[in-house]
Write a structure and sequence with these properties.
InterPro entries: ThermoDBP-RPs_arc. With 264 residues, this protein is an alpha+beta fold. It has two domains: 8-102, 2-Layer Sandwich (D-amino Acid Aminotransferase, Chain A, domain 1); 159-262, no CATH class. It contains nine helices and ten strands. The chain has helices spanning 22-33, 35-38, 42-66, 107-129, 140-154, 159-164, 226-231, 233-242, 250-262; strands spanning 8-13, 17-18, 74-84, 89-102, 167-173, 179-184, 190-199, 202-211, 214-223, 246-248. The strands form two sheets. Strands 5-6-7-8-9-10 form a six-stranded antiparallel β-sheet, sandwiched between helices. Strands 1, 2, 3 and 4 form a four-stranded antiparallel β-sheet that branches. Helix 1 (22-33) packs antiparallel against helix 3.
Length: 264
């Protein structure tokens, strides 16, 4: 006789999280998604804890042992899984596992590189953009300006959407404790979303913008707390506007947007 078991399918997505906190985020996310199944079922709750430990151990080997994660690094994890309520089992679909890793460059390394650029290029830049005696401008200025204009026109990014950003509207808090904000244009139209996640005195933000039928994604980082930034939204908007974006497919962008909305 054919089984009529009700197999349920889910997708676990941590959102952007500090690498050192991935295990807790995986656990919280799984239990939040399965709260109706685990609330009054001790066996299902034990299975959720077991499945969490299994996935987290595998992720540990990747994030800690192989990628050598450090303080300030960030990670985003997505994986599909099936729940068999009658058998009280959870089965990860490891073929769908996606791990995105963001390496933070230390302040010391940035300072060293800044010092190197200052020592090697400052005099050259000052001479190129300075003024000659009598007010005559150095002849390289026009060339540099034209070069910068050409480079700016070659940059791939959501230029139109960025120019239209005027405000952020808080949609709400997700099941993972992050805050989701709508990025609004002049007429209140939605240009995308930003998900804010507070960790260790910093706020990481995952930005999703849709522009010209294309999707764009970026990661921003600001000091302080989410509550403080919600009072000073212009700081978040400034970071969104100057972020470096990667182009993603329209379908992927729409999928990520739906995924974030489903976590409210």
């Amino acid at each position: 006789m054919m089984s009529t078991e009700n197999v349920q399918e889910f997708t676990l997505s941590t959102g952007l999280v500090i690498a050192g906190a991935y295990a807790q985020k995986v656990r919280r996310t799984l239990f939040a998604q399965l709260k109706d199944l685990t609330k009054n079922d001790k066996e299902m709750a034990k299975e959720a804890a077991r499945a969490t430990a299994e996935l987290n151990r595998l992720l540990y080997y990747l994030i800690v042992d192989e990628l050598k994660s450090d303080k300030g690094d960030a990670v985003r994890i997505r994986v599909k899984y099936k729940v068999h309520p009658e058998k009280k089992t959870i089965e990860w679909d490891y073929s769908s596992l996606v791990v995105e890793f963001f390496k933070r460059v230390s302040d010391e390394e940035v300072s060293k590189l800044l010092e190197k650029v200052m020592n090697e290029k400052l005099k050259e830049v000052q001479e190129a953009f300075g003024r000659r005696p009598g007010g005559e401008e150095a002849p390289t200025i026009e060339t540099e300006e034209k070069h910068l204009e050409r480079v700016e026109t070659e940059v791939v990014g959501p230029a139109t959407a960025i120019e239209m950003i005027v405000d952020l509207y808080e949609i709400g808090e997700t099941t993972m404790g992050t805050r989701l904000l709508k990025i609004e244009g002049p007429g209140g139209e939605s240009l995308g979303v930003v998900e804010l996640n507070e960790r260790e005195g910093k706020v990481l933000g995952e930005v999703l913008l849709v522009d010209g039928g294309e999707g764009y994604r970026a990661v921003i980082s600001l000091p302080g707390s989410i509550e403080k930034l919600l009072e000073e939204k212009t700081k978040v908007i400034e970071e969104i506007k100057k972020a470096k974006y990667e182009k993603i497919g329209k379908e992927e962008a729409q999928h990520l947007l739906r995924e974030k909305m489903s976590m409210l």
